[in-house]
């Protein structure tokens, strides 16, 4: 499980399972973008999104207080069905300007 309270640039979760995302707070902006599906979801408090964890996504910048609680169906350190160890990318650049709007 992870709790997020900021915008983030394009990434995927590398869990090889499903992500269940719950959104709360009071904010403006912060759409969830899924460029592989050509989809942009304007979220509201109480929304729940279920998606495959390997789908690339990003969250637009927003104003206000917003959090997402993400439940993963597989652990980041599990072994995939092909017996390859899963590696999680570093998150240190997810908020940098160079990564925002890559697909927007």
- How much beta, percentage-wise? 35-45%
CATH superfamily: Jelly Rolls
**Helix fraction bin:** under 10%
User: How many helix segments?
Assistant: 0
Strands of the widest sheet, in order across it, are: 1-8-3-6
Kindly give the count of domains: 1
CATH topology: Jelly Rolls
Summarize the helix and strand pattern as letters.
EEEEEEEE
CA(first)-CA(last) distance: 28 Å
Q: Major sheet, described briefly?
A: 4 strands, antiparallel
Stretches with pLDDT under 50, minimum 5 residues: 82-91, 99-104
Structural topology:
Layout: E1 2-4, E2 8-11, E3 18-29, E4 32-34, E5 39-41, E6 48-52, E7 57-59, E8 62-72
Antiparallel strand pairs: 1-8, 2-7, 3-6, 3-8, 4-5, 4-7
Can you describe this structure?
This protein is an all-beta fold and 104 residues long. The chain has one domain (2-76): Jelly Rolls, CATH 2.60.120. The chain is built from no helices and 8 strands. It has strands at residues 2-4, 8-11, 18-29, 32-34, 39-41, 48-52, 57-59, 62-72. A hairpin with a 4-residue loop joins strand 4 (32-34) and strand 5.
Keywords:
about 100 residues, Jelly Rolls, single chain, four-stranded antiparallel beta sheet, 8 strands, mainly beta
């Amino acid at each position: 499980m992870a709790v997020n309270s900021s915008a983030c640039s394009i990434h995927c979760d590398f869990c090889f399972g499903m992500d269940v995302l719950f959104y709360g707070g009071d904010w403006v902006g912060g759409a969830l973008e899924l460029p592989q599906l050509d989809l942009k979801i304007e979220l509201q408090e109480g929304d729940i999104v279920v998606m495959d964890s390997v789908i690339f996504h990003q969250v637009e910048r927003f104003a206000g207080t917003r959090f997402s609680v993400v439940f993963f169906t597989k652990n980041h350190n599990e072994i995939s069905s092909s017996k390859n160890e899963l590696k999680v990318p570093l998150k240190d650049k997810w908020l940098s300007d160079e990564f925002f709007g890559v697909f927007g």
